[in-house]
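Database export, one record per block. Field names are fixed; values are copied verbatim from the stored entry.
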Amino acid sequence: MAVPTKQPGALAGPAEDGVRSAGRPQLGGRDTRGAILEAARGLFAELGFERTTMRAVAAKAGVDVALIYHHFAGKDDLLTAALTVPAGAESGLRPIPAGTTNPGAAVASRILGMWENDPTVREQALAMFRTALSHEHAAQRVKDLHTSAVGALVAEIVAEDDRELRAALIGAQLMGVVLTRYLFKTDTASADPAVLVAAVAPAIDYYLTGDLTHSAPIGASQHRAAHGARGPE
């Protein structure tokens, strides 16, 4: 039986048993790499790393498996590429200028604003966090990205002493807010963003410049310290 041949310049169709020129990007201007990454993020988030197959990613992206290997060395490389800071978040993570009034509110507003106003950033970040829950490499990657992003954001407004610890505490505060609001959808999900900013700003102010050796019990005394008030002697 003769095997039909394509005419020069003919496009491969989806009915060709998924076979295209190995690893060659599709024509027509489609961003196949972006489609693969979007599909991978969704599947990593939904199924976890181990249960996500390259064939499943290819099917979701509408490409041949060989095309994935044109762009990525393997599933680990695909995961690393998927776990990157969203392009739309880069401007929001620029350092907050020194001398900013109400720096704690500025930090909280910047982060919540990105999550609230940019669906692409929000969905990609959620996919990163969901994947991190099921894969050690993903968890380490997200931790490193989160640490560097928060450190860069507060670099010009954080006290010189214990900078890494201060940034880590701020990151933990912000991560708690965004995950409970957008992933776990607790009561914070229905709260006005301005209310959340006002609620967490005093704690962030304390982490930025407060005395981290303060020995008062956690609770009311520390809340007063975050507002700059003295506790009981």
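Remark 1: The two ends are 95 Å apart (CA to CA).
Remark 2: The chain has a mean pLDDT of 82.
End of record.
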